[in-house]
């Protein structure tokens, strides 16, 4: 009975252990439990879309007006890959990097977005993956720290102790 109750509240994540069928959008490595390419995890669009989806509308300091962003909450990605490291380093196409303590990933954000107004984001539009906070919903996210962590063109996440 208790096991059945626990299963009912445990998050269900897609099986990410299969190799990606499409182009790789994100590579994850380090202190993770799920792998599909040696000691790394490679994810394509469909694999990311198979995870719990979330969306919010927000304005940013880099765009004009409010836009609707859809993707995977970073906390859900952390759980889906079985990350055990205390720090994550996220890298972009241009080698820009941010460090983010896993303990600071809040329930209401950030979002690893791959859709903007219902369309995949191109590299020119800061895609294909953009780590965004719901700036309009929480004044705490309108800070230099949150802005500096809003990395676009994200391609790699490394978890370390």
TrEMBL record:
Name the domain of life: Bacteria
Q: Which InterPro entries match?
A: OxRdtase_Mopterin-bd_dom, OxRdtase_Mopterin-bd_sf
Residue ranges occupied by any Oxidoreductase molybdopterin-binding domain in the UniProt entry? 59-134
Can you name this protein? Oxidoreductase
Organism, as annotated:
Paracoccus solventivorans
């Amino acid at each position: 009975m208790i096991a059945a109750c626990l299963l009912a509240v445990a998050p269900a994540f897609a099986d990410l252990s299969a190799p990606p069928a499409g182009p790789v959008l994100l590579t994850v490595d380090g202190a993770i439990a799920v792998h599909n390419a040696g000691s790394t995890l490679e994810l394509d669009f469909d694999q990311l879309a198979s995870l719990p989806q979330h969306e919010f509308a927000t304005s940013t300091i880099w765009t004009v007006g409010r836009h609707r962003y859809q993707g995977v909450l970073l906390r859900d990605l952390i759980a889906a890959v079985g990350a055990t490291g205390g720090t994550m380093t996220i890298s972009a196409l241009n080698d820009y990097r941010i460090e983010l303590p896993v303990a600071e990933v809040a329930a209401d954000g950030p979002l690893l977005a791959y859709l903007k107004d219902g369309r995949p984001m191109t590299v020119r539009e800061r895609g294909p993956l953009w780590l965004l906070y719901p700036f309009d919903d929480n004044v705490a996210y309108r800070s230099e720290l949150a802005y500096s962590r809003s990395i676009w063109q994200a391609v790699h996440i490394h978890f370390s102790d």
